[in-house]
Amino acid sequence: MEDMSGGSHESQQTQLPSRGPHRRRSSPPNGRTARSTTADRASPLQTGPTSSSASGGAARMIGAALSSSLKTTRITPKWSKAHLPCDAKFVWSGSHRSDTAQLDYSPATLFELFISDDILKYIAKSSVEYARQKGNHAFELVSDDVRAFIAILFTSGYTVLPARRMYWECSPDVHNDAISSTMTRNRFEEILRYFHLADNNNLDPSDKFSKVRPLVNQLNDSFLKHFPVSQQLSIDESMIPYFGHHSAKQFIRGKPIRFGYKVWCLTTPLGYLIQLDPYQGASKGSYGDVGLGGSVVLKLISRLPEGLPFHIYFDNLFTSISLLGKLSELGIGGSGTIRNNRLMGCPLADLSKASRGAYDYAYDSVSYAVLVRWMDSKPVTLASNCNGVNPVMKARRWSNASKAKIEIDQPFVISQYNKFMGGVDRLDQNIAQYRIGIRSRKWYWPIIAYLLQTAMHNAWLLYRESRAATTLPLSHLQFIREVCKVYYAKSKGNAALLSMPVRNPKTLERRCPGDIRFDGVGHYIERNPTQVRCAVCNMKVYKKCAKCGVGLHLDCFPGFHTRP
C-alpha cells in the first residue's frame, strides 16, 4: 500500500528484453513513484458462462465507457474553491449482501468452488494431449492424480526443501511420508513434465498468455461469482517472480519482486481477488484520455454487479481527472493519488513549506471531482469523486520538537485511502508466506502456481467469513494443511493422517473431515491393537474404521457414516 507520508522514492520499470539504454525517470513529488505508462496489449477480460445478467449489463455499460474513452476528447475543468457535493448515488444501502456467512463448507469444498472437478478433468485431458504431441502415447492422467499433484505442490509451500527430489528420500531428516506414500517421484515428475492447460493447436497468437488463459478466465468467473460483496475495492499490480526469458517479463526497480510477470488485480480490502488480468507489455494502440491506467481500471470493473455504488481505490499510475469523470457517469466512486502532471491546471497551494496537517482543495464541476493536497512529512495530492475533505479526521505523528506523538488534521479522503487501498498488498503478503516451492523450467509454470495459490487464498477468506469458522477457526496455514490432508486421503483411501494436533481435545471434524467420512467409499471395520474411544458413544472399543481412523462399535458404524 502506498505510503501517505508523501515521500518520493526512485522507481524504474522496463519491459524485458529491452533495446537501447535505460532512462531514469524522475519520481513525482507526491504519492507513489512514477511508472512507465506504455500501452497495454492485454485483451479485455472475457465474460465466462457463470456471469450473471446483471454483471453482463454492467460490462456493456462500462465497455461503452471504455470505447468512448479511447476517443481523445480532452475535457476542460472548471476549478473552484468548493467542497465535494454530497451525492446520494454513492451511498451504500447494504441491501446487497453476500451469502458467504451462511456457508458451512469444509476447507476442501470451498477450495473446489474455484478448482472444481471439471477444471481437474480439463487439466488431465489437456496434459494427456500435450504428452501425445511430445511423443509419449503411454501417459495417462485422471482428475484424482491431478488432485494429489496439487496437494504435493501446496505441501512444498509450508515444508520447504532445497530440491524437490528430497521429499522422496529415505533419509529421516528430509523424508516426507505424506508425499512419498501418495505418489512416486517418477510419477510426479512425469505429471510435472506434461502439466498443461491449453490446446497447443488452438492458441491465440496475439495473446502472450494463451497457454494459461483458460484457467485465468475460469478463475475470473468463479472469483466473481463467490466474492463477498464489499463497497470498497482496490486496484493495484501484483508481481509473479520469474527470472527466465519472456517478452512479457517486467523489471520494476525498488519492488520486493523486481523480475517477473505483472498482473493487474481487483481485490477487496481483505485481499480477496475478484478479477485479474496479466499484463502483456507495450502496445501500439491508443488509450485516449484515460490512459493505460484508466483503461485497466475500466476493464477490471467491467463485470462487477450492476447498480451498486462501489468505491474503487488506486494509486497514481491509474488516477486521472478523465477517469474520475468516466466513473461518475457510471455511478462508481473512485479515489487515488494523482501525479502533478495530471492536475490539469488545478490551482492548489504549494504546501512544501507549510506545517503538518495543512491542506488545500479544489472542485471541478465538469468531472465532479475534488483534488485535495495535504501536508504530512511532504505534500501528497489525491483526487476523488466520492470522498472529500469533510469530516476532517485526526492522524497521530511523531513531533521532533515536542519529542512525543501529536495529532494533526487529516482530510477524510486521505484516511479512507489509507484504510482501503491495501487489498492487493494483503494478497501478495499471504501468498508469499507459503509460496509453492516446486519449480519448473517452463515459462508459464510460475503463473500456474500463482493461480492455484490465489484460489486457495480466496477459499480461506471465504472460510473465515462462514459459519464453519465460528466452530473451527483455521489460520491460513491450517486451512492449506486441511485441504492437502483431505486430498492425500482421497488419493490413498486412508485417512489415518487426518488428525491435526493443534489443540486438545481434538474435535471429531478435525480427526475425520466430512469429505472423507460421508463419501461412502472404502469404509470397513478392522481391529485396533489398543483400546480407543468410540466416536459415537464414547465407550471403549477395540475396533475402528479403516479409512476414517476413528474408533467405532459395529452398531455405531452405520450412523457415523450417515450424513445427518
Protein described:
The chain is an alpha+beta fold. The chain has 3 domains: 43-98 and 227-424, no CATH class; 107-204 and 434-465, no CATH class; 518-564, no CATH class. The chain has helices spanning 53-69, 107-111, 117-133, 143-158, 177-180, 185-194, 213-226, 291-300, 321-330, 412-420, 423-433, 445-465, 468-471, 476-492, 508-511, 514-517, 557-560, and strands at 13-15, 79-80, 232-241, 250-252, 259-267, 273-278, 311-314, 333-337, 359-364, 369-375, 379-384, 393-399, 404-410, 525-533, 540-545. Strands 1, 2, 3, 4, 5, 6, 7, 8, 9, 10 and 11 form an 11-stranded mixed β-sheet that branches. Strands 12-13 form a two-stranded antiparallel sheet. Strand 12 and strand 13 form a beta hairpin. Helix 3 crosses helix 4 and helix 4 (143-158) packs antiparallel against helix 14 (476-492). The radius of gyration is 27 Å and the shape is globular.
Any chance you could write out the topology, listing elements then pairs?
Blueprint: E1 13-15, H1 53-69, E2 79-80, H2 107-111, H3 117-133, H4 143-158, H5 177-180, H6 185-194, H7 213-226, E3 232-241, E4 250-252, E5 259-267, E6 273-278, H8 291-300, E7 311-314, H9 321-330, E8 333-337, E9 359-364, E10 369-375, E11 379-384, E12 393-399, E13 404-410, H10 412-420, H11 423-433, H12 445-465, H13 468-471, H14 476-492, H15 508-511, H16 514-517, E14 525-533, E15 540-545, H17 557-560
Parallel strand pairs: 3-7, 7-8
Antiparallel strand pairs: 1-4, 2-9, 3-5, 4-5, 5-6, 8-11, 9-10, 10-11, 12-13, 14-15
Helix pairs in contact: 3-4, 4-14, 7-12
